[in-house]
Write a structure and sequence with these properties.
The structure is a homodimer. The first copy, chain A, has about 525 residues and is α/β, with parallel strands linked by helices. Chain A has 16 helices and 27 strands. The longest helix of chain A has 17 residues. The interface between A and B is medium-sized, with 33 and 33 residues.
């Protein structure tokens, strides 16, 4: 199977049905296929050769969806850039993957000079917007206008379809290379386990399309057929208005988005009864939030999917699980396509109830980290991808995430690796030592908190350190709070005892965490 | 993915839940996995090596399901014999595939001497029954009892999982080699298109497990998780009783079975409200049958799946299609995993509404015909499998089967190739010429009808010709009616004009058929 397969199928079944709805702009499958074929022709005319990387930097739009089709159609590899990243991080992702073409929307066009400066290997920049392109950039619509349509390359199976950069434990992002088969194994296996989208339904893309959650949702609706309703970015009222206006059947969110919807003062003025599946990812919901959400979306089946960029999705908490309501803190049970184990440091499965690392195997496991066989070999051992998530599995196979071995914080659905933030903080001349931890946060799930020991005689404020960090990494990765202390708690080996640090802020939730080695 | 994957998943999630229910015998997933591991050990002890063929000949049973797991577990290839075939046809399937082990139930044990005689290459015969085995055969339970469990081979992907023999156009059956990926692509793609089974549901196996419809149903429920309720063979009252007693959620049937259920005098005495999906295959339903069936199964979503042994399933008429009720004569639209075209003799797609041959492409297309690269190359061209079904596709992508290019009759869900029956008839000394066609039949969909020109001065009756044919081919392939005529209508090239023959019996249904080239 291949990523554009769903478009061809919809084109044959229902060419005049809407493929994308973006504001007032509706495009049919016939238009979408025509545009994808010509856009692919345009990309080829820019010299895109087989397997060459094409980056997208933009808010969600119908053009984003077109690009997700046109790039594989041209036999390119899509590199969807994280819009929240600092330009220096984007440059890293462009350089590391040796991306030759960048398609950017008007929101991010101002970053182009900095990106070109950082990665002169960019052969062409295309502005995907209605207005005129900046100096030196091509116009998306004009490129498509003059291009000859090309036949779909129809590469699939083990051909790499996407390289997606995620934060790294060692301070550098890593490019996750995913094949068509990787993505579609995850899509079909998840659909067979719990329907995230409905065949012939209408999905609303509230999550960003550059993120695995958004990309997976797009691929799912595309392969089973149906319409993509797109909002540029998450705004609770825009989302509710779009659901109401377009009779959306499925939405996929992170719990912080769901919270913003149910908290919104205009909640009851919109008709949300068309939604029959509401999927969420990245973190569990609380019982209180679920109860309110079930009231707000009275006809929705609630499902949680758990996964990561390297894997797509691997487990699900189904509608039935939600109706029973007894395991809401769980990440669900392994999906039909994935084998999941909780293992010790040697990869040996641990008894149920014992905390270890989550490892997964299956056709969904990434092809590898782009150009980094060592990192790939460290992550994928005997076919098992080691997730870095610490969890236990109960007797019925439900997975409960209790911590992250890789010291990762999930804030508003985004992964933040402490090491990256600590590296950035450590560059400040006033910082002697620091440790970054996640603290519970009602709005974001977790928030990034830094504990810093200043150098003797240094005069620095928490605000200055936050500003400093924001110059180096994405704003969402920078600490939201900084505490200055005289000393950090250290182990005998001189390692910062993060558990002890966290314990100062958080009362232990249960005895389970004591089981972590 | 691999065929035993669902068992491992269920074993981890719900080891004590019922895996199989067969009469009063209930076996949990823990028991099933234990038995499969030991049975696989037993097969290995009989010398089953990697990729070796193991045949099953029996009615549906819980042991049949165990074998479908134990054979791949032992890294063997399953050869499920058509129980309706004549022993000489079974011998052909055993010899052609060089099958070394035969597992037989007590119903078919009396055939063993004839099968051994025809295929001395059978190293061992195992009786899967409660009683003692016949002379020279091993006892299934004893084999399992003494065997050491072996670890699951976990072969999957492109490894061949099954070789399934189907009738051939040239008089000989052909062995369809299917990989794990072939079968599971079809299973997941069909589930994503229209749920045939429900995760954690209970499926009733009314269709025989040796047939693709039954095997596909088994693989579907196994991979999404759930219980297999098994009846030895189709009997309308047994099926209704099993649904009522075990609260079955899904059943998969052929329309003749559905007809027998709704016609049954005891229909209203059983509670069939637990059924939420009713899938059927092999031929369309009439509006009258559907209406009665919807009344009999008030909570069921009706879906039709269309496919063949070489492909698994390729298209579906969904629940929504049935509720609209306007395309019941259609075989539905291509499923998410399959590309389907109606093509001319050169493989070029025809305009919508024009009749041609159905061709399909995708990960579900068989690996090939066992040991027959020529037949494989004739059937699979540029990745497209040519089905031999004549059909047109309407503007919305619905497929309407109008005839069979390969001159095939579908009777009670079984495919009968006219050529095979004509070969058998032609062996009778009194037959000068003959033609076999399918005639519409209320009970069987189609029935096999032969038109025979006797040799001059020969004295033969229709009954004698039917008896003669039954000695050579399966009873269901033998004509149910024979007409003796003076001459057959011939084309200028001397070919029997079957269209003209059929026209003598059937009033044309619509102008569509006139479009066949």
């Amino acid at each position: 199977m291949y990523l554009t397969q769903g478009l061809h199928r919809s084109l044959r079944h229902s060419p005049d049905e809407p493929a994308t709805i973006f504001g007032d702009r509706v495009r049919s499958f016939a238009e979408q296929a025509d545009r994808a074929a010509r856009l692919a022709g345009g990309l080829r005319s820019l010299g895109v050769s087989d397997g060459e990387r094409v980056a997208i930097l933009g808010l969600n739009s119908d053009r984003y969806v077109e690009l997700l089709l046109a790039i594989p159609w041209a036999n390119g590899i899509v590199n969807p850039l994280n819009i929240r990243w600092h330009p220096s991080e984007m440059v890293y992702a462009l350089r590391d993957s040796d991306t030759s073409i960048l398609v950017v929307d008007d929101t991010f066009a101002p970053l182009v000079p900095e990106l070109l400066d950082g990665h002169p290997g960019l052969r062409a920049v295309v502005l995907a917007a209605d207005g005129p392109p900046p100096e030196g950039a091509l116009h998306y619509e004009a490129l498509m206008e003059v291009a000859q349509p090309v036949p779909d390359a129809r590469r699939g199976g083990d051909a790499v379809a996407a390289v997606m950069y995620t934060g790294g434990t060692t301070g550098h992002p890593k490019g996750v290379a995913l094949t068509h088969a990787n993505l579609l194994t995850s899509v079909l296996g998840t659909q067979a386990t719990c329907s995230v989208v409905r065949p012939c339904g209408r999905v609303l893309h509230a999550a960003p399309l550059f993120h695995m959650l958004g990309l997976h949702t797009w691929a799912s609706q595309s392969i089973v057929g149906g319409t993509h309703v797109i909002v540029p970015k998450f705004d609770p009222e825009d989302v509710m208005a779009a659901i109401d206006r377009h009779r959306v059947t499925s939405i996929v969110v992170v719990p912080t988005m769901l919270q913003a919807i149910v908290d919104h003062p205009q909640l009851t003025t919109y008709d949300l009864t068309s939604v029959t599946t509401l999927a969420y990812g990245a973190s569990p919901v609380t019982e209180a939030l679920l109860e309110r959400a079930m009231h707000a979306f009275p006809h929705a089946d609630f499902v949680q999917v758990y996964g990561m960029t390297e894997l797509g999705s691997i487990s699900a908490l189904t509608g039935e699980d939600h109706r029973r309501g007894d395991r809401l803190r769980s990440a669900g049970r392994p999906a039909a396509h994935a084998e999941v184990r909780v293992v010790d440091g040697d990869g040996v499965e641990l008894p149920r109830g014992t905390v270890g690392e989550v490892a997964a195997r299956g056709g969904n496991v990434m092809a590898g980290y782009w150009g980094d066989p060592d990192a790939t070999a460290a992550a994928v051992r005997d076919g098992w991808l080691h997730t870095g998530d610490a969890a236990y599995m109960d007797d019925d196979g439900y997975i409960f995430i209790v911590d992250r071995i890789k010291d990762m914080i999930i804030t508003g659905g985004e992964n933040v690796y402490s090491a990256e933030v600590e590296n950035a903080l450590g560059c400040h001349p006033a910082v002697a030592a620091c440790a970054v931890i996640g603290l519970p946060d009602d709005a974001w799930g977790e928030r990034v908190h830094a504990v810093v020991t200043p150098r003797p005689d240094a005069d620095v404020t928490p605000d200055e350190l936050i500003r400093h960090t924001r110059c180096l990494v994405a704003a969402y990765k920078a600490p939201r709070s900084v505490e200055l202390v005289d000393a950090l708690p250290l182990s005998g080996a001189g390692k910062v005892l993060k558990r002890e640090l966290r314990a100062r802020y958080i009362a232990p939730a249960s005895g389970r965490e004591a089981a972590i080695g």
